[in-house]
Specification:
The longest helix is centred in the last third of the chain and has 14 residues, at 293-306. The chain is built from 13 helices and eleven strands. It is of the alpha/beta class. The strands form two sheets. It has a six-stranded parallel β-sheet. A five-stranded parallel β-sheet has the order 8-7-9-10-11, with helices on both faces. It has helices at 10-20, 54-59, 81-84, 104-109, 145-148, 157-160, 164-173, 188-195, 203-209, 219-226, 261-270, 277-284, 293-306, and strands spanning 3-7, 28-33, 48-51, 65-68, 96-101, 114-116, 133-137, 177-180, 212-215, 230-234, 256-258. Helix 7 runs parallel beside helix 11 (261-270) and helix 10 packs across helix 12 (277-284). It is globular.
């Protein structure tokens, strides 16, 4: 028996790799990252496939699947049925035999074997920011209201884009090097940053270098809090305050919130340090990353494999 990993997008593959690399050599199977990837017909009938997306459950059809949550466990009440399949507690096919989750409440929501391990992708990175460095990122509009059904799932870029130059300058005046980032599937961000003479960096560089993350809505905010980094959450006028999706909206917002560019710039110029220890304890079930989440997850997957 082997345990394989299958992802259509590289950023999903990173979450699987954080677990797959800790599997023993005798059970570690193939690792495939390809938009057209499907389970290999040559794999054994009892081989397990780890995935991090609902679409990859479909790509592994007919085989036992371990579903790895690739976020902090955010869900959106009122999301349309297709979009809701990505969120915890939704209905998955019976071949999904287990779940690797960030928090215990997420693990409990699936109603099948599950473990809360934290965030394996954070294991290699240092606590606190190693450099005086800030990153700015925005969510993608593939999760926009017309596709998901809730405004909070979209990007806040439109509310800040005309002031990004001012925001970058404010950070630089405060002594920060600034990293440009964006959701891996938000291609428009490349041109936005290019107009400012900046090149997008991957999430790996953000986790490795940034002391401060400024973002609208991303699980990277919770990862940075888990690594004891500073976070500023960017609100938009279309984020409704009378909804309760949990986490980002609005029970456990990571770090300090601002409602617009001017408020953000004022915050950057007059304050230093935005980390909130109450956020990370809720998000992953322990105070900070200890660097062993991937090993715990791999041990659990191996145990599930032995029961097949």
């Amino acid at each position: 028996m082997k345990i394989h990993a299958l992802a259509r997008w590289p950023h999903l593959g990173e979450h699987l790799a954080a677990i797959h690399r800790h599997l023993n050599d005798d059970i570690r199977g193939e690792f495939i990252v390809d938009h057209q990837a499907r389970a290999n017909k040559a794999w054994g009938p009892k081989d397990i496939v780890m995935v991090a997306s609902y679409l990859d459950i479909e790509a592994a059809r007919g085989r036992p699947v371990i579903y790895v949550e690739h976020g902090a466990g955010q869900r959106y009440e009122g999301a349309n049925p297709r979009a809701a399949r990505y969120y915890h507690g939704s209905e998955h096919p019976e071949n999904v035999i287990g779940y690797i989750c960030p928090r215990q409440d997420v693990a409990d929501s699936w109603g099948r074997p599950a473990i809360a391990v934290g965030s394996p992708i954070c294991d290699p990175y240092e606590l606190y920011g190693p450099e005086r460095c800030a990153a700015i990122t925005f969510h993608w509009n593939g999760a926009a209201p017309d596709k998901v059904g809730v405004p909070e799932a979209g990007t806040a870029l439109e509310h800040y884009v005309n002031d990004l130059g001012r925001i970058v300058n404010a950070l630089q005046r405060s002594g920060y090097e600034v990293l440009a980032h964006g959701h891996p599937r938000f291609n428009h961000m490349h041109s936005v940053w290019k107009k400012l003479g900046m090149t997008m960096v991957p999430a790996d560089e953000v986790r490795r270098r940034a002391q401060l993350l400024i973002a609208d809505n991303t699980s990277l905010m919770y990862e940075m809090s888990y690594l004891m980094r500073d976070v500023v959450a960017l609100n938009a006028p279309w984020y409704r305050r009378d909804v309760d999706h949990g986490l980002r909206f609005w029970s456990h917002v990571p770090g300090t919130q601002v409602d617009g560019p001017d408020e953000l710039i004022e915050l950057l110029e007059y304050h230093d340090g935005f980390w909130d220890p109450n956020v990370i304890g809720y998000t992953y079930g322990k105070s900070i990353s200890d660097g062993y989440d991937g090993q715990r997850a791999a041990a659990w997957v191996t145990m599930q494999a032995s029961s097949i």
